[in-house]
Specification:
Two copies of one chain form a homodimer. Chain A is mostly helical. Chain A has two domains: 50 residues, Homeodomain-like (Arc Repressor Mutant, subunit A, Orthogonal Bundle); 156 residues, Tetracycline Repressor, domain 2 (Orthogonal Bundle), CATH 1.10.357. Chain A contains ten helices and no strands. In chain A, helix 5 packs antiparallel against helix 9, helix 8 packs antiparallel against helix 9 and helix 9 runs antiparallel to helix 10. Chain A is elongated and about 60 Å long. Chain A starts with 6 loop residues before the first helix and ends with a helix. The C terminus of chain A is likely disordered. At the A-B interface, helix 6, helix 7, helix 8, helix 9 and helix 10 of A face helix 6, helix 7, helix 8, helix 9 and helix 10 of B. The structure holds a DNA duplex. Chains A, B: GO terms for molecular function: DNA-binding transcription factor activity; transcription cis-regulatory region binding.
Chain lengths: 216, 216
DNA sequence: CTCTAAGTTGACTGGCCAGTCAGTCCAGAA
DNA sequence: TTCTGGACTGACTGGCCAGTCAACTTAGAG
C-alpha cells in the first residue's frame, strides 16, 4: 500500500473549510471551489472525498455538531453544581466568540435547509434531542439537590432552549434591540428565576436589578 | 392612457405566489419560472414587476410581514383583557394552520438570508421591533391592571418572543420532541406563570408561577 | 377607427458551477 | 528499481436559470 492514509485529516480540513464558508456567505452562495480554496486544495479533491455538494453539506452539519459538543465536554467536569453547570452551558452558547458565532451560523443554515429535507430533519432531531436531554437532566439534578424550583424539567428545558435559539438568531442578525449583552441579561434573569431562594429577584417584586440589564 | 392599471393586483399575485413557493421549496431552490407558474403568468411578467430575483424576494418578505400583521389586527379588538389578548396573540403564532406555517417558513428563510444581507437585517429589525413593542405593551397594560407579575416588560417580551421563535422552528422541522401540541403546552405554562394569582403555581413556594414565566 | 402605451409573452443567451475525467504524483511494497 | 494504487489536480462539459428582448395584445384616448 502507498502513502499512509491522509483521509481523516483531509476530510477534517474540508469540513472545517466548508463550515467557515457557510458561515461567511451562506449555503446558497457556497461553491465547491470556495471550500476547496479555503481548505487549500482543489475542487477535484473536495469531490474525491464528498460525492456531491449535498453530501458535503450534510457531513459539514454533522461535523459542526460533534465539534460543538466536544468544545463543551470540559464544562461537565469543571462544574458539578447543577446551577453553575447550567449557567456555564448557557453562557457557552451565547454567540460571542467567533467560533461560537460560526457554529450558530452553520446551525441556522441547517435549520432552513432541513425545512425541505427529511434527512437533515433527522439530524436536527438527534442533535436537539441530545441538547434537550442534557439540559433536562441538569435541571433534574438541581431539583433533586433542592436547588431548582420544581417545574417539569422537560418543559423547562424546552422553554430554555427555544428561548436561546430565538434570541441567538436575533443577536446573529445584528439586532439593535437584541445584542449579545442583552441576550446574556435575559438568560441570566431566566436562570436566576429557576433557582430556589436566589436573592436578586424576589419573584413578586418587579423591576429588580436583573430585569434592568435586559431592558437596557 | 391605455388599460386601467393592474399593477397592484398583479404584484400581489406574484408576491403571494413567491411566498408559497419559498415556503414549499425554499429560497435557494426557487426559480422565477416557479413563481410565474404559480401566479399563472410568465417569467417575463415577473421581471416586468420586479427587476431582479433579489428585489422580488425582498418585496415578498415585506409582504409576508404586513400580511401577518393584518391577519392579527382583529385580535386587538376582540380581546381587551391583557392576559387574553396576549394569549390570543401567542396562540395565533403557533404554526398550526397552513397559512401560519407558510408565514413561518418565509420568515425562517428571511432570517437566514438576512445573515448575509444588511438590507434584510434592517427589515428584520423593524418587524421584530414592532412585535416586541406590541408584546411589551400588552404586558405593561396587564401589569398596570394588576393582572401580570411585575417583571420588566421588555425582558418578558424578549424572552417570550425568543422562545416562540425557537420553538416554532422545531415544530416546523417536524421534531418529534417538539410538536405543535407540546409547543402550545409550553407556551400556556409560561403565560400562566406570567399572570398574578393564577391558581396553578404559587409564586414564592418552590413551584412558583412567578419565576416560571421567565423560566419557561 | 387609429394610435398609444401599458402589459404580457416565451424563446433565447450568457454566465455560472457541480460534477467528470484523463492524467500526474508519490510513498511504500516487492 | 519498478510497480501499485491512493491521492490529487484542474480543464472541461452539460445543464440550469436570471435576465433580456422583440413581438404581440389589448383598452382606452382622441
Amino acid at each position: 500500500m502507498p502513502r499512509p492514509s491522509v483521509e481523516a485529516e483531509r476530510r477534517e480540513q474540508i469540513l472545517s473549510a466548508a463550515c467557515e464558508v457557510v458561515s461567511e456567505i451562506g449555503f446558497k452562495s457556497l461553491r465547491i471551489a470556495d471550500v476547496a480554496g479555503r481548505a487549500g486544495t482543489s475542487s477535484g479533491t473536495v469531490h474525491y472525498y464528498f460525492d456531491t455538494k449535498t453530501a458535503l453539506m450534510r457531513a459539514a452539519f454533522e461535523w459542526n455538531f460533534t465539534r460543538s459538543l466536544e468544545r463543551r465536554r470540559h464544562l461537565l467536569e469543571e462544574h458539578q453544581d447543577p446551577p453553575q453547570r447550567l449557567r456555564a452551558f448557557v453562557e457557552s452558547y451565547l454567540p460571542g466568540d467567533p467560533e461560537t458565532v460560526r457554529a450558530w451560523h452553520v446551525w441556522a443554515e441547517l435549520w432552513v435547509e432541513a425545512l425541505h429535507d427529511p434527512d437533515l430533519q433527522e439530524l436536527n432531531e438527534q442533535v436537539y434531542g441530545e441538547w434537550r436531554r442534557l439540559v433536562a437532566s441538569i435541571v433534574r439534578d438541581g431539583q433533586d439537590a433542592g436547588l431548582f424550583r420544581d417545574e417539569d424539567p422537560v418543559v423547562v428545558a424546552n422553554a430554555l432552549i427555544g428561548m436561546i435559539d430565538g434570541l441567538a438568531l436575533q443577536v446573529l442578525l445584528g439586532s439593535r434591540s437584541m445584542t449579545l449583552e442583552r441576550m446574556r441579561a435575559v438568560c441570566e434573569q431566566v436562570l436566576r428565576s429557576l433557582t430556589v431562594g436566589s436573592s436578586a429577584q424576589p419573584p413578586l417584586d418587579g423591576r429588580g436589578a436583573g430585569s434592568t440589564a435586559a431592558t437596557a
